[in-house]
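Dear colleague,

Following up on yesterday's call, I've attached the two folding results inline so they're easy to grep. Please treat them as preliminary; we haven't cross-checked anything against experimental data yet. The first protein's sequence and structure tokens come first.
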Amino acid sequence: MPASRPPFRTRTPLRALAAAAALPLLVGALASCGYGAGAADDEKSGKAAGGSTLSTDQVKLGYFPNLTHATALVGVEKGLIEKELGGAELVPSTFNAGPSEIEALNSGSIDIGFIGPSPSVNGYVRSKGDSLRIVSGSASGGVKLVVNPDKIKTVKDLKGKRIATPQLGNTQDVAFLHWISEQGWKVDPQSGKGDVSVVRTDNKITPDAYNSGSLDGAWVPEPTASKLVADGAEVLLDEADLWPDKKFVITNIIVSQKFLENHPDAVEAVLRGSVKTNRWINGNPDEAKASANDALKALTGKPLPAAILDPAWESIRVTDDPLAATLDSQARHAVDAGLLEKPDLKGVYDLRPLNKVLEAEGAPTVDDAGLGVR
């Protein structure tokens, strides 16, 4: 990243989103930043890294200020994604909830987004297969069930307790409801009432709710899980232990079908940036961790302390592979929980641009588990 690279410059994304389309959902703590002032003269002309001119002069990228979106955090902060766009402007925006990001994608306020599997499936199904495609993986793991050790020492102690998930129907909510059913317990999926009380709580609020005694634990992604551990909670279960090879998708890269159709070269450029970012993260884990924390500081106003950052970072694996078979399983879990009618997911993936990038990088291609476009 050049030393002359300009710092984050804040915008007013809510106003921008409203101007693009009157979104019905409030996008909490939405921030965005733009780059390009430090680009070389040949890049300013609109030429991508390979010398060809992109079909668009702007790419609007959405992601969360979460460590499970490490590819986006590092790729934007280090300029690795921007570099592949050449002179095209990268316009990032951050979101705190999947539905808000899906709304932004559908309205055209963003073109490409990093997002969890449940919002990806919901967005695809509700649009009858017309709104988005999953074009890459991004991260696996980073989800834990953490509990108050004074109240819960074994799995059976969860019965009758109050356990938080981030949001009704979100990826962790679905996983917890499915796991509860496997224990033989009953919970109403909508109200969360039953043998275990599932309390839908924003991740920003969960630590305070836990410390006040109103929650007995939480099934949450990083870094919220490690924040709770720092406050005295203990890890009862790592979700990775429930999956084959301890791998399951936690973050995808999605694109609006309209943008993919009109600007396939820009999508390929972003994917080239994400692949190179993941390779850099895996080759430079300590530097990458610091970069992600710098991005979090710029986006949220404060970095994570080492006691939270280190264990959280350790539990997340960046990956180009979308782990498509695990997304199919997660969709079936949502059906089993009563949160989703049986979906037709054929066509939810288009991995052709990613596999083209991977082949050019000399890396193995990835599989869509039979759910790709034909």
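Below is the second protein, in the same order (sequence, then structure):
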Amino acid sequence: MKNITQIILAISLTFSCFAQQEKGIVGEVNWLNNWTQFKSNKIDYGEPTQILAGTISEDALLKKSEVYLLLGSVFVAPGVTLTIEPGSVILGDYKTNGSLTIARGAQILAEGKSTDPIIFTSNRSIRKTGDWGGLIILGDAPINRYGSGSVANFYPNISPSDYGNTNYGGDEILGSSGVLRYVRIECAGKRVSQDTYFNGLLLASVGAGTEIDHIMVSNAGEDGIEIWGGNISMSNMVSYRSKGTDFKFNYGTTSIISNSLAVRSPYASNGSGDRCLEVLSYHKKEEVDFEKSKTSLDANNLTFLNSSKDLEAAIKMNLVHEAIYVGADAELNMSKSVISGFNPAVILDENIRVNQGNLEKIRFEEMYFNNCNGNIFVENNSNNDDLENWYGNRVFFNVYSKSNNTETFIAADNYKRPDYRLRINKIIASNIDRDAIDD
């Protein structure tokens, strides 16, 4: 009788805590409405009426009344402001790897509206994943690499006069590269060489004065949104069907991401690094200065889901991997988030020792783990008992369930008006004291 009472009490506490705090993306209304597009290849944006090429060396305004074509590598020079009106359409040229780079010291003011977003997309009549380059913003905030960095490798045919426009890094923590708000970036992330791809949106050494929210990157050929160094605060971000990682933080960035969404498809993946979230401090130890900051990310109210209709079959075909990967020497504080349908939910780098000191730097609190083939593991180690015991402690208020996407989310299958907020009243979650059951 005592054991049954303990179990009922544990369930009651779980439901009580869960009901009091929404998890995953939140909002009184569905903030995806109007400005997002989950079938972007079905839209005719019209033919270009203006061409953008070379370096923009004076303040410029892109108007809604025109359709612009990015021909080759387009740079906004230091000291120059590029302003983009709500509703403007900018096409990236497929043949010339069209891209837009905001140089260090320049600004972009791309402030769309929920009813009139700014669109970056491919100029092909039938748009596909990775058609064009992407949007790159370079700032002068700190990075933990030795010296300043350069993205010159993205531009194989760059002219010598533009090399200065590819540099990033500095000491301006509060620096501003402008505003990105209500912007869609579709079908970017083109392959440049054997090992080099553009991303949908790359933010390198971008400072805290930059405003970034309500950005949707869809069908990227590589990573959806990648951050190198800098001090970024982002909210209401969406990455949809990216081939690479949806949100990648690296090279000593100190960032915040909140109320954001990543939707993965097992059939839209490059097979390597295809995760919702990757938190790293470096790719190679020898390229960074350990006297500088390590990557530190605060993440709250995120929703990560796999859209597979047959998760078990997709896992058997090795099409589904972990949702989150945390590298050595990186810190992650994640809370109030949903991870649904992955294999497993989280993997920690094999060089991270499982001890209290390290786990206090990698926190998962008030999480909702749903329908995952395992929860948290160290890379190449199938025994995760220590991690399960640590993160399963009631002090973290993490909950677990096995429900499909239709039961879990309000309208995950509605491609015209999807709603990925949690369907709270349909969830059966359990976080029962294992010792109470065993007794």
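For the second protein, one point worth flagging: The chain is about 10% helix and 35% strand.

Best wishes,
A.L.
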